[in-house]
Design goal:
The chain is an alpha+beta fold. 32% of the residues lie in helices and 15% in strands. It binds 2-oxoglutaric acid.
């Protein structure tokens, strides 16, 4: 009888509990062997059978959706957020989750960014920020952005000419060759493993916790690669200023895939800036020059006096994740280091947030021209990812 129990227990328990009893046919026997009294053995056997039956019943009774939920609940435990993390996110507008990702998750994301860079030229949203800025500031050859359609570089060149905001560059290290700052949006659409992580990984649940929301939508991703010697800074900005959204409840997971140390492209945040409840004009990234015709306030010159804004530069290791609010002011330093700094941002928002046209902000990838203010976002473009739903059969 005890063999039957062991088989039952193994087949019923293993998939749900994550316990590996395989090869442990002997386990039940060993447990039973500790009990010499035949009645003890009998009752123990009944208990094992009952447990196996209960698990078996639970598995078969569980709908696919419930199973997804259970898997995600386990994932949530594995990636548990501490109350302190939630508190920091809410008061500072950003939080660092140290060692949040496993090494296999980091490897997968590295491969995703590498795949994004390999297909960079074919993307409709990719930009070599360095080459574009060289052209805009008249220090390089013209920039042919080939397939990319998100920005009107002619209009940006005029905005740069009319603006008194300089290009933001950290001093290159003597003798170091220049690298490029490469950026692309919507990489998840061409890298399935990234889509899987963004839509079904741990981040939707974490977003729900941080934002205290019942339902979450994946907005999009962006990759940011600062090659060695890419000394372009990322100008201080708020992410919301670039998005056509009627609301601000959202967060961005900035995931470094290489060690990020001083001078190597660290992210910088203005703590508490998400609570200012102000939206500043989006800038062209290589400078505080705003997009032409953009709405919002002029961004203060934070670089001129970072201490008075309490700016915090954050070092990070692969596996760490920095999360910031859509209204948190942030930027990054140039990469004066000797190795590339790869990072990916994944953005999640309140699923109920409607569309709102933001004058002057670049069009989102796959933007539909006929969408009106107040309309819900398109689920096919920005899928709802929390609460999870069962994959279709
Ligand atoms: O990686 C960078 O330089 C900038 C990243 C950023 O601004 C973001 O993820 O929102």
């Amino acid at each position: 009888m005890s063999n039957v129990s062991a088989i039952k227990l193994r087949s019923a328990a293993v998939p749900q509990q994550g316990l590996d009893l395989s090869g442990d046919m002997d386990f039940v026997e060993r447990v039973l062997a500790r009990f010499q009294n035949p009645w003890d053995r009998h009752f123990l056997t009944l208990a094992i059978d009952a447990t196996a039956d209960a698990l078996e019943h639970r598995n078969s009774a569980m709908s696919a959706a419930e199973r997804v939920r259970a898997d995600l609940a386990q994932m949530r435990v594995a990636h548990a957020l501490k109350a302190a993390h939630v508190g920091q996110f809410r008061s500072n507008g950003y939080v660092k989750l140290e060692g949040f990702l496993s090494s296999s998750e980091v490897e997968m994301l590295r491969a995703a960014v590498n795949a994004g860079i390999e297909t960079f030229e074919a993307s409709p949203n990719s930009y070599n920020v360095t080459a574009a800025a060289d052209a805009l500031w008249g220090t390089g050859a013209g920039y042919d952005n080939k397939t990319s359609m998100q920005h009107d570089l002619g209009a940006l060149a005029k905005a740069v000419k009319d603006s008194d905001r300089p290009r933001l560059l950290d001093p290159p290290r003597p003798g170091q060759p220049r690298g490029s700052f490469l950026l692309d949006t919507g990489v998840w659409r061409r890298v399935p493993a990234l889509a899987d992580f963004a839509l079904r990984g741990p981040l939707p649940a974490v977003s729900a916790d941080l934002l205290d929301l019942a339902s979450i939508r994946f907005f999009d991703d962006q990759i940011f690669v600062k090659e060695a010697g890419a000394v372009d800074r990322t100008a201080f900005h708020q992410d919301l200023a670039y998005f056509h959204l009627g609301g601000s409840a959202g967060c961005v997971f900035w995931i470094p895939l290489d060690p990020v140390r001083r001078g190597g492209g660290r992210m910088a945040y203005v703590p508490g800036s998400h609570l200012w409840k102000q939206v500043f004009k989006p800038n062209i990234f290589a400078s505080e020059t705003p997009f032409p015709g953009s709405e919002g306030l002029d961004m203060p010159d934070i670089d001129a006096d970072p201490d008075s804004f309490g700016v915090q530069y954050i070092e990070a290791e692969p596996g760490d994740v920095l999360v910031h609010h859509l209204l948190a002011i942030h930027g990054s330093e140039g990469n004066r280091g000797g190795t590339q700094r790869r990072a990916i941002s994944l953005r999640y928002i309140d699923a109920a947030m409607p569309y709102r046209h933001r004058a002057g902000a670049p069009p989102q990838p796959l933007h539909r021209a006929n969408v009106t203010d107040g309309a819900p976002l398109d689920n096919a473009i920005h899928p709802v990812v929390w609460p999870p739903t069962a994959p279709s059969a």
